[in-house]
Specification:
Length: 158
């Protein structure tokens, strides 16, 4: 049986956070959980200023690429990031939690930037620079360059 605490919808600034917290069930979605998720999504749909960012351990791909670190709806409200290939263990290296955290933060900001209609930036240090390999993520900052920051601010009307 799904309890209230297993599925939570929260607002954190402009972000809508919908959490499935069912570790004993490996976050499996049964009927009651699906209904709670639907209620959370309805709360999101009713909030035009919210953004959704999904984070998953699953490997992601799109039809034209064998993998992606994340994907977003350009100018929309939804995005997703996978930490599958952000982990050092994927490459046969020892676990590095701080590095994983930095990579995940960088990719989350990048994908949320796309929801603000930001395209890929030519400045390799900008969080909006394209990353086709994890090493490129490590070269980037997790913040916008001045040009991208101005575009994001204009779009979001902070």
């Amino acid at each position: 049986m799904t309890t209230v605490d297993e599925v939570r919808y929260e607002r954190v600034g402009a972000a809508a956070v919908l959490t499935i917290d069912r570790p004993a069930r490996r976050n499996a979605v049964d009927g009651p959980t699906a209904r709670r998720l639907a209620a959370g999504l309805k709360s999101f749909e009713d909030d035009p200023d919210a953004r959704v960012l999904g984070v998953t351990a699953c490997d992601l791909f799109v039809p034209v690429l064998t993998f992606v670190f994340g994907e977003a709806e350009m100018g929309g409200t939804c995005s997703i990031v996978s930490y599958h290939r952000l982990q050092q263990e994927f490459y046969g290296l020892p676990q590095d939690a701080p590095l994983l955290g930095r990579r995940l933060l960088t990719e989350c900001v990048h994908e949320l930037g796309h929801t603000l209609e930001l395209t890929h930036c030519q400045d390799y240090r900008c969080v909006m620079a394209s990353s086709h390999a994890v090493e490129w993520i490590d070269l980037k900052e997790w913040t916008f360059c001045a040009d991208c920051a101005a575009k994001a601010e204009a779009h979001a009307q902070f």
